[in-house]
Amino acid sequence: MNQINLNGRRAIVTGGAQGIGLAIVERFLDSGASVSLWDRDDALLKGKRWRG
User: pTM of the prediction?
Assistant: First the structure.
């Protein structure tokens, strides 16, 4: 997949604890962005290991 440069950029992702939202979060992180992640299911968020 083509790599985009998001260094120094910030992203907010809602519904990012699973599915398409999680894939978007991972792609943004791989591209260098800082990501603020929100999901209504706190248990899913707490069960993830995030880079940082």
Answer: 0.81
Single-letter amino acid, residue 40: R
Q: What is the pLDDT of residue 10?
A: 97
For 22, the 3-state DSSP assignment is helix
C-alpha 41/C-alpha 31 separation (Å) is: 26
At residue 2, φ and ψ (nearest 5 deg) are -65, 140
Pair 51, 30: CB distance under 8 Å: no
Is beta strand 10-14 parallel, antiparallel or unpaired with respect to 34-38?
parallel
- Judged by DSSP in three states, 45 sits in helix
pLDDT digits (tens, 9 = 90+) for 13-47: 999 999 999 999 999 999 999 999 899 988 888 87
Residue 34 identity (one-letter amino acid): S
